Amino acid sequence: MSDTIIAKGISKSFKRGTETIHAIQDISLNIGKGEMLSIMGRSGSGKTTLLSCIGMLENIDSGSLVLEGRNIKDLSEAQRTILRRELMGFVFQRFFLIPTLTAYENVALPGLFAGKKLGKDHIMELLEMVGVSQRYDHRPGQMSGGEMQRVAIARALALDPPVIIADEPTGNLDTANAEAVFGLFRKLASQGKTIIIATHSQKLAKDCDRVVELMDGRITRDEKN
Amino acid sequence: MSFIKLAFKGLLRRPAGFIASCLTIAIASLVLILSLGLSQGYDSALISNIDNLGANILAIPKGCPYEATGVILSGGNLRYAVAENQLEPIKKTGGVKIVSAVIMGQRAVGPYKKVHVIVGADENYHLMRPKLGFKKPFAENEVALGYKISQVLSTKVGDDFDIAGRTYKIAAIADKGSTEDEDLVFMNLKSAQKLLKAEGMLSSVLIQVDDPAQSDTVAKRLMTIPDLQVITIGDFQATISDFVSGARIAIFSVLIIIILIASVGILTTQASSVAERKGEIGMMRAMGATSGQVLFESTLESAILGFFGAIVGIVLGFALSSSASELIKKSLPQSPSGSIISIGWTSAIMTLAIVIAISILAAYGPAKNAASTKPTEAASDE
Ligand SMILES: Nc1ncnc2c1ncn2[C@@H]1O[C@H](COP(=O)(O)OP(=O)(O)OP(=O)(O)O)[C@@H](O)[C@H]1O
Ligand SMILES: [Mg+2]
């Protein structure tokens, strides 16, 4: 069976004034189904850019990217959005829950954009799995950071995507909550989800199946734990 | 979860901004519905008044024509008069069909001595104004009452009726329906002249012509009669229209300014709201919202804002239309006696549609801006 994500020589640069910043350069990376991979590297090394490219949040300048057997090269912006909806769930350092919606409603939100009504049982099941089902009726303001990030993870899982992309998901959490979140990812990986996490934490990266390290937009290390 | 709910919750992010925007939109909607109602109300009030008059031409005393037309339509005391001996030359003028002489003045009437307008009318008046439902001319000691005054005083045909110490018999009560006539007391021309101490004098002469299309020609002939001023219904309408169009221009200017203020309010509220939510909008894009969906959601927010503001404004419009009508009438030298603002479903729906459209347009820039938010905004760390 072929890998979930096949990146071949992808590059992405940004213009800042007259200067061109090569955020990632010539990155090739295959990620298998159910793999839990962490991306490490100093600030500015290109972690977010790599995740954004893999997650189709950002268009790549060159190289090829095949996601679940689909080459994204020839897709329009709208088609990418729809594919992203099917394939990817995102978790960021900042949770970006809608503050005026309850935990339940926040998890239901991806269904609105996908034009699918998500069942009550399905949403409660997700909240149950991330451990905040008792908070379903609370708004983000009434929840702790750890709880909010769990709701955000449940939201990322709402449309049951095969891939979860998490950019410093524990950046705003204390150690206990950070470990719990990684525990959750571990569980998801064991259920067959492909998990890609950018993190600064050596300790948490050790919990992953594989660690990729970036420096100046290039891979400098790629090891299985 | 629906887009409407999401948009509504989005607006509730900033309750104070939401309420402030709604209120400015409500004020704009209020002015809009009143000015829509003004043109409709004014036209209908004028048309019904003129219809009820039954005349094509009015002969009025030399003097201020505006004051004279006012006296004819809504009553009042006489300052200038037409002499009774001018009646014969009017009747003899070619093209004139029926002529009815009228005197008007105010006196305290009935048990409560409330001041009402007295109309003294000659033997042709009931023919000229069939809508009042009077079947025959009034005799010397008879009065006929407008519908409303008869209701207020709960009197009926055959009762005695007191005017300034004299007693008359109620011979008829006018049919319901013509508001400006409902407070009038009608009586015989001679008795009224005696009562008003104006023997031989008339307030006006209502003239019906054989062919209404020839009103202008007949009016020209009538103008040759000395000391008589003649005004056709068309001129009359134009006279009053001049005043109201002045008021309308003033209201329209106010309306434009208020709509601009409300639009700028919506624009700034939505622009800062979008700026504040860049990350969230990026998150929505990341989780699969197309830029079209973001544009739709943002537009929906402006529409909801417009909807609530318009509803409040429309409700206020219904509540305040009669006071606004009085206020505008006070600023006019002459106006019809009915309400000059009439708001109904048509003006309410027009207001709602216009205000929602303006709200959407005003916030179109911020909505476009929201739609162009990149999903990577969600990944940025502050
Ligand atoms: N939209 C952008 N415009 C201009 N430059 C950018 C943009 N996004 C990223 N960069 C630059 O690309 C480089 C890589 O940035 P990136 O955010 O991928 O790093 P990172 O490894 O995620 O860093 P951090 O650990 O601080 O999150 C940096 O030099 C950054 O300044
Ligand atoms: Mg980053």
Provide key terms for this protein.
heterodimer; A: 225 residues; alpha/beta; six-stranded mixed β-sheet; four-stranded antiparallel β-sheet; 10 strands; 33% helix; globular; B: 382 residues; alpha+beta; nine-stranded mixed β-sheet; two-stranded antiparallel sheet; 11 strands; binds adenosine-5'-triphosphate; binds magnesium ion
What does this structure look like?
The complex is a heterodimer of chains A (225) and B (382). Chain A is α/β, with parallel strands linked by helices and 225 residues long. Helix content of chain A is 33%, strand content 29%. In chain A, the strands form two sheets. In chain A, strands 6-7-8-3-9-10 form a six-stranded mixed beta sheet, with helices on both faces. In chain A, strands 2-1-4-5 form a four-stranded antiparallel beta sheet, with helices on one face. Chain B has 382 residues and is of the alpha+beta class. Chain B folds into two domains: 3-47 and 244-381, no CATH class; 63-227, no CATH class. Chain B has 13 helices and eleven strands. Chain B has a nine-stranded mixed beta sheet with strand order 6-7-5-8-4-3-10-1-11, with helices on both faces. In chain B, helix 2 packs across helix 11 and helix 11 crosses helix 12. Chain B is elongated, with a radius of gyration of 30 Å. The mean pLDDT of chain B is 86. Classes of the chains: A alpha/beta (225), B alpha+beta (382). Chain A binds chain B through residues 48, 51-52, 55, 57-58, 77-78, 81-82, 84-85, 88-90, 92-94, 96, 98-101, 105, 108-114, 155-156, 159, 167-168, 171, and chain B through 1-3, 6, 9-10, 12-13, 279-280, 282-293, 374-376, 378-379, 381-382. The structure holds adenosine-5'-triphosphate (ATP) and magnesium ion. Magnesium ion binds at residues 47-48, 167 of chain A.
